[in-house]
Amino acid sequence: MSYQHIVAFKLASPDLLPSFVEEFKTLSQNCLDKNGQRYIKSIRGGKQISPEGMDGGMQVVFIVEFDDKEHAGYYLDNDSAHADFKKLARVKYQVNGVFCLDFVEGQF
């Protein structure tokens, strides 16, 4: 079963959101495993629109899909493209809030 990584972001300026989204979506092409192969199955997401008022100020949400926990672990701990993106997010896009959740569909 696929491993799902949910990540939500809050940026200091909403004006930076469109270019931030485009930059994030490039991870599916730029993240390569130790054999030089792409390993992100998909990235999908959108603007946070919940009316519940429990969003913590998050403005955009993504679901990053991997084949398994090992690929997700590589992404989090070893992938240089992901590490570079995290630095860029703080400096260029002024990300000042991140919320992450992971799950495997159907496992409770």
Largest beta-sheet details: 4 strands, antiparallel
- Low-confidence stretches are none
**Overall CATH architecture:** 2-Layer Sandwich
Task: Report how far the terminal alpha carbons are from each other.
Answer: 13 Å
**Number of DSSP strand runs:** 4
Number of helices: 4
Amount of helix: 25-40%
H-E string: EHHEEHHE
CATH class membership: Alpha Beta
- What would you report as the Rg, rounded to the nearest angstrom? 14 Å
> If you average the pLDDT, what whole number results?
97
Strand order of the largest sheet: 2-3-1-4
Overall outline: globular
β-strand percent reads 25-35%
- In terms of structural class, how would the helical and strand content be classed? alpha+beta
By CATH, the topology is Alpha-Beta Plaits
The tally of domains stands at 1
Brief account:
The protein has four helices and four strands, in the order βααββααβ. It is an alpha+beta fold.
Task: Describe the protein.
InterPro entries: Dabb, Dimeric_a/b-barrel. It is a single chain. This protein has 108 residues and is an alpha+beta fold. The protein has one domain (3-104): Alpha-Beta Plaits. 31% of the residues lie in helices and 31% in strands. The chain has helices at 17-25, 27-30, 69-77, 80-91; strands spanning 3-11, 40-47, 60-66, 95-104. Strands 2-3-1-4 form a 4-stranded antiparallel beta sheet. It is globular and about 40 Å long.
